[in-house]
Amino acid sequence: MRHGGKILVDQLAIQGVERVFSVPGESFLAALDGLHDSGIRNIVCRQEGGAAMMAEAYGKMTGRPGILFVTRGPGVTNASSGIHVARQDSTPLVVFVGQIARAHRDREAFQEIDYRSVFGTVAKWVAEVDQTDRLPEYIARAFRVATSGRPGPVILALPEDMLSGSADVPDLPAAQRPVPGVSPDAVEAVEQALTQAKKPLVVAGGSVWNAAAAEDLARFAASWDLPVAASFRRQDHIDNRHPNYVGDVGIGMNPKLGKRLAEADCLLVLGARLSDSATGGYSLLDPARPGPKIVHVYPGPDELGHVYVPDVGIVADPAQMVAALAGRNAPPSGHGDWTRTLRADYEGWVQPVETPGAVKLEQVVAWLSDTLPDDAVLTNGAGNFAAFLHRYYRYKSWGTQLAPTSGSMGYGFPAAISAKLHHPDRVVVCLAGDGDFQMTLNEFSTAVQHGAAVIVIVANNGRYGTIRMHQERHYPGRISGTDLANPDFAALARAYGGHGETVRDQAEFAPAFQRAVASGKPAVIEVTLDPEMLSTAMTVAQTRAQGEKARGGA
Q1: Domain assignment of residue 257, yes or no
Q2: Is 477 exposed, middle or buried (0-12, 13-18, 19+ CB in 10 A)?
Q3: Which CATH number does the domain housing residue 199 bear?
Q4: Is the pLDDT of residue 346 over 60?
Q5: What is the band of 554 on the pLDDT scale with cuts at 50, 70, 90?
Q6: CATH code of 143's domain
Q7: Does residue 354 lie in a domain region?
Q8: DSSP string, 296-344
C-alpha cells in the first residue's frame, strides 16, 4: 500500500522526471511527502506565475513535459500566465493542482474553482483524479496528451483526501510520444512544390525540433539553395550565420523580409503556425484571398487549414521531414539569385542603427553576439528591448533561445533560472526591460537558493516602452499609464545575495559583464538608457512626429 502522493511521485520517476517546480500548498502535502526522498529535485519558487514559466522553459529545452505543482484557487490562477505560454508556444507541460476534498465540492469551499471551466480553453486536457488507484492511469495519459500532436499543457486536479488516501496499485510504463511518420509520397510532394517554385521560402518553427533537425535544415537549405526564415522567437532553429538564413518572420520583422514573404510563390512551413505575428497581422498573407502555394508540415492535424488552407498539408514530425529532405539528392536549382537577395536583405538589417544615449542597446546586443560562446542561452520576455535581441543577436545553435511566442512579459528571468539549472555549465543571459523584469524579479531568491547563476541585463528606460510606442503612434504626446518608478536594480540584486552593477556608459558594459560572470552568483547589470530611445529604429520624437502626421492625414 502507498499513499497517493507516493504513487504519483513514483509514476513521475518512471516517466523520467528529474525536476519539478512548485509553490507549496497544504492541498498537496502528500505529494510533497512523496518527493521527500524520491531523488526528484523540487525547485521551490516564490510565485506560481514564475514557477509555471520555469516549468514551461524546461519543456521548451527538453521536449519533455515540464512539471508544475501548485495549490488550488489563487495558486493555479496565478500560474495561468505560464500555462497560457505553454499553450501558444506548443510546449508540453503537466500541472498538478491541489484540490479541495471531494465531499466539499460544489459548495464554493475554501479556494474552490471549477478547473474545467477556467482552463478548458487553454489546456489540451483538464481532469480531476477521483480515485487513488487511478493515479497511474491519469498520469500516463497526461504525459501522452501533453506530448502528442501539437504539444501543450495538461492540468490534473488532485483532491487532497484522494491524494492522502492509500491504494495497492501497479505502476504503468512511461508514455511514449506517438510520432507521425513521413511517407515517401509526402517527401515527393514537398520536392515537387519546390521544383516548380521560382520564389520559394522556407519558414521553420514550432516546438517539435532538436539539434539534429537544425543541422538537417541547414544541409537541406544548402542543397536546394533555399532561403530559410525562422518563425517568431524560433531563431535558434538554424545557425544564423548560415548563408541561407534570411531572418525571422514575426513582430518587428525586417520590412524587406515581409515584402519577400508577400512575393513568395511557395511557402514550405515546417512545424510553425502561420499566425498574425508571422504575417503582419494577416496583411502580408490574407487567408481570405488566393496566395502562394503553401506546403505545411505540422505534427497535429487540427492546425492544417485552421487559418490558411494548405495546397499540401502533411501531418508529420517536422524534424523527420527535414531529415528525409536533407538525405535526398536535390535537382539543379534556379533559386540562387532569390536566396542571395533575401540574405543581403538580412545582412543589411542586422547592421546596427545608432540610438541616442551614452549606453546603446544595439551595441550591448552586438557585443553579446560577438563574445558569448555558441552554446550560450539567451532568454527574454516581452517589450521593445526584445526587438534588439531579435534583430542583432545571431543564434548559432539549437537550444539557445528561450522566449515566449505568446508575448508574455516577465518570462525571461524565470526561463533563465530554469535554463541554468538544466545547463549549469553554460552561460545563461536574460535580457529584460525594467517593466518586464519587475513582473517576476521576486524569483531572484529562487535563483540564489538553488544556485542558478544567471546574468540579467536590465534595459532601464523608465517606461513600458512598447505601449509608449503605440501610444505615440495613435495618441501622440498624450502620455498616460506608461511611465515607471523603478528601484535600484543593482542594489536589489545585492540585497538578495547576488551580484549587481549599474552601467551608465558603453565602455563600462564589457568589464561589468565579465565581473558578473566571475562572481559566480545570480547577477544584474542595469543599463541606463536615454529616455528618448524607444525602438531599434525610432526615437520618441520620431515616433510622435509620425503619429502626428498620420493623425493629420486622417
Answers
A1: yes
A2: exposed
A3: 3.40.50.1220
A4: yes
A5: low
A6: 3.40.50.970
A7: no
A8: EEESSGGGTTTSS--SEEEES-HHHHHHHHHTSPPPP-S-HHHHHHHHH
